[in-house]
Specification:
heterodimer, A: Elongation Factor Tu (Ef-tu), domain 3, 2 domains, B: alpha/beta
Chain lengths: 261, 311
């Protein structure tokens, strides 16, 4: 974990509201793993006072670049979307805990909702590479969006299943409806990132089948390094964990989703 | 040039401290910055028992600021002594333990226990906490209670110093701006025997989500910090300086050297930075360098002289 002023290599729109930021990662002191994130300082005289956290959506060690999929949501992300190749960013990372790898012989189900696609796409590509080396089963990625125009123009692993709320493409319904419609063998382990209601619904499903379930949660953050206790995530035992330092990937069966949603 | 600051028996190497609640117990920032450069590290609040903190969400961003309602989440006094204090002792800067509680006894218990420990250079008392014995009104809103609490804590640290055969650790009362007249509370702290006051703590604020028609924070209100509150803090320090003669530590919305100098010129002996650390962990280093350059440029020999330079 360190801070670098990193060059933007590419910053391009990939769908209606999403853009892909690719930046120089060659000077950071450790490798990003799927589930980890970085924070960006947002500039401007009266700009936001908090850095913005984004999950890594990819890492290319040969080119020395890393990427994130970002949704244009508020003032910080709109400012970021306006930057271009050659601009620089103040980046702190890599931060947080990554997804754990599935056991051999267990087909991992990766579920993404909306902008939660970023880390799941990164994880899917890492697991695909591992499966090619015989280290694990190939993953199945299910990606849900509100509508077709949000689906980013990116390379997806073969066999990725798309769902849309409005049925404009792929399966019509939620990612959970899609999982329930799968006719072949049920998943044995679930990994997910997306809106909290989706993560909560998956927790109920995983819990009912006693499946291992890892979820990457989203929470407002201040320091991003575990000092301020701002990004607390309520757990079922009544305690709080820090999304930035104890997560953002948690055992989804131990998160108190009712208190988080 | 002399950058040192004297508060009671304590000499800090420079006037720039990291504010309580923004810097944990130091170890989280060690990987990013040279913590030993700090004039002082004000720890996250320590309460007698562990506190999990408030329900979520705890944060909301506001124009040039942020609201927080962390709820003094901390691992409690025993854990602090066994796990955090040893880490703090190797930080290489003055360690000021921030103390919070629900009753007067809570504050006394924390300070009394810490008086038996080494590696602590002072106490900052958070009197913005609700006083359970007085209907939940903050300790810091009643001059009578502030003077009594300060006097009791002063007596405890006098006894502790005698026991250790050491000088008395400075007692700093952290003032809340959520009062009618902050100078009245500052006078009460001085009368009770405080070695210094720090000002200001956060201002009470609220953000409402109009679509959900409810406050964004689970606790509804939170403490506003960041550049938005800086003019309030500078004015408070200016008024306090003219009301009392003990040192004043200024904080609230400092992001850069000029901001820090505003506080010093208004009458502060030292400053703290907080919210800026979230976006720029290197801010302390930059401000220390900046103050040095300012003193060089304007031929100021001692940082303690700056408070007398306001026209």
């Amino acid at each position: 974990m360190n801070i670098q002023i990193a060059n933007i290599i590419e910053n391009r729109s990939v769908s209606d509201q999403y853009f892909e930021l690719v930046f120089d990662y060659s000077n950071f002191d450790s490798e990003p793993q799927p589930g980890m994130f970085f924070t960006v300082k947002i500039d401007g005289a009266f700009g936001p006072v908090l850095r913005r956290p984004f999950a890594f959506s990819g890492w290319n060690p040969k080119q020395g670049t890393a990427s994130a999929l970002i949704e244009k949501r508020g003032n910080g992300t709109h400012w970021l979307a306006g930057l271009a190749s050659g601009d620089t960013l103040d980046i702190l990372g890599p931060l947080g805990k990554a997804f754990s790898f599935p056991q051999r012989g267990v087909r991992p189900l990766l579920v993404a909702g909306g902008i939660g696609l970023g880390p799941m796409l990164f994880f899917a590509n890492v697991l695909l590479a591992r499966s090619n080396q015989g280290l694990c089963e190939a993953p199945l990625l299910i990606a849900g969006f509100r509508t077709q125009s949000l689906i980013p123009k990116l390379d997806f692993p073969a066999g990725t299943l798309f769902c849309t709320d409005d049925g404009s493409t792929g399966f019509k319904g939620t990612v959970l409806d899609c999982i329930l419609s799968l006719s072949d063998a049920l998943p044995k382990v679930i990994y997910a990132c997306g809106p909290s209601p989706m993560l909560a619904a998956l927790a109920r499903y995983a819990s009912s089948l006693a499946l291992p379930y890892e979820a990457s949660v989203e929470q407002w953050m201040a320091c991003g390094i575990g000092a301020c206790m701002g990004c607390a995530v309520p757990m079922t035992d009544g305690t709080y964990q820090r999304a930035c330092a104890d997560g953002p990937v948690f055992n989804g069966l131990t998160v108190d989703w009712e208190k988080l949603v | 040039m002399n950058l040192t600051v004297t508060i009671g028996s304590l000499t800090m190497k420079n006037p720039v401290g990291a504010a309580s609640g923004t810097f944990g117990y130091g170890s989280e920032y060690e990987k990013l910055i040279d913590v030993h450069e700090l004039g002082a590290l004000y720890t996250k609040a320590v309460t007698p028992e562990p506190r999990g903190g408030n329900p979520v969400p705890r944060l909301a961003e506001t124009p040039s600021g942020m609201l927080n309602s962390i709820g003094l989440a901390n691992p409690g006094l025993s854990y602090f002594i066994s796990n955090k204090l040893p880490e703090l002792q190797r930080m290489g800067c003055s360690v000021i333990v921030n103390v919070a509680g629900k009753t007067q006894e809570d504050y006394c218990k924390v300070v009394e226990t810490l008086e038996t420990q080494t590696g602590i250079h002072g106490y900052e008392i958070n009197i913005s906490c609700p006083n359970v014995s007085h209907g939940g009104l903050a300790f810091g809103t009643d001059p009578g209670i502030v003077e009594k609490l300060t006097a009791q804590l002063r007596s405890i640290i006098e006894q502790g110093a005698a026991m250790r055969k050491d000088s008395c650790r400075p007692l700093i009362i952290k003032l809340s701006p959520n009062v009618t007249d902050i100078t009245e509370i500052a006078r009460a702290a001085e009368a009770g025997g405080a070695h210094a006051v720090s000002a200001i703590n956060t201002l009470v604020g609220m953000v409402i989500d109009v679509k959900k028609r409810k406050p964004v924070l689970a606790m509804k209100t939170g403490g506003l910090s960041g550049p938005a509150i800086r003019p309030v803090g500078v004015a408070a320090v200016y008024k306090i300086r003219r009301a009392i003669s003990i040192p004043v530590i200024g904080l609230g919305g400092i992001t850069c050297t000029d901001d820090a100098l505003q506080y010093l010129l208004a009458g502060a002996d030292a400053i703290q930075i907080g919210t800026v650390l979230f976006s720029n962990p290197n801010a302390a280093h930059e401000i220390i360098q900046g103050i040095w350059q300012y003193m060089e440029t304007y031929k100021i020999n001692s940082v303690a002289d700056i408070k007398n330079l306001l026209e």
